[in-house]
């Protein structure tokens, strides 16, 4: 029996969550986006729903959601913080998330109040996590 091979990139200058978001530290902020693995798993993202910039969110509140042909996926935040910026381009052009997940397809920038990097996986740990799925 042939196994299906799926190829995707994992950026090495980021951390990852088990719900397949990437987090890149920039100063005291976190740029956040959707991993290529998730995009391949759920299919093309047809819509990105953003919160307003300058919105305070508590741990567990949703940061943003994506809509595919078959589902709407809200993403909760593992940290309380302030949504400092949103990428309005992905709202009007969700193909950016599909085509440039680690670059132009970033979704939000969060200023976390209490950022614990232990809650996130480094790239190698994320690949190991994916191998166990």
List keywords for this structure.
single chain; 133 residues; alpha+beta; OB fold (Dihydrolipoamide Acetyltransferase, E2P); six-stranded antiparallel beta sheet; three-stranded antiparallel beta sheet; 4 helices
Name the overall outline. Answer: globular
Proportion of helical residues: 10-25%
Through-space gap between termini: 19 Å
CATH superfamily: RNA polymerase II/Efflux pump adaptor protein, barrel-sandwich hybrid domain
> What is the mean predicted local confidence, pLDDT?
92
Query: How would you describe the oligomerization state of the chains in this entry?
Result: single chain
Account of the 3D structure:
The protein is of the alpha+beta class. The chain has a single domain (15-131), classed as Beta Barrel (OB fold (Dihydrolipoamide Acetyltransferase, E2P)). Helices cover 20% and strands 32% of the residues. It is built from 4 helices and 9 strands; from the N terminus they run E-E-E-H-E-E-E-E-E-H-H-E-H. It has helices at 36-42, 88-92, 95-99, 123-131; strands at 15-16, 21-26, 29-34, 47-50, 55-57, 62-67, 72-76, 81-86, 108-112. The strands form 2 sheets. A 6-stranded antiparallel beta sheet has the order 1-2-3-9-8-5. The chain has a 3-stranded antiparallel beta sheet with strand order 4-6-7. A hairpin with a 4-residue loop joins strand 1 and strand 2. The longest helix has 9 residues, at 123-131. It is globular. The two termini are 19 Å apart.
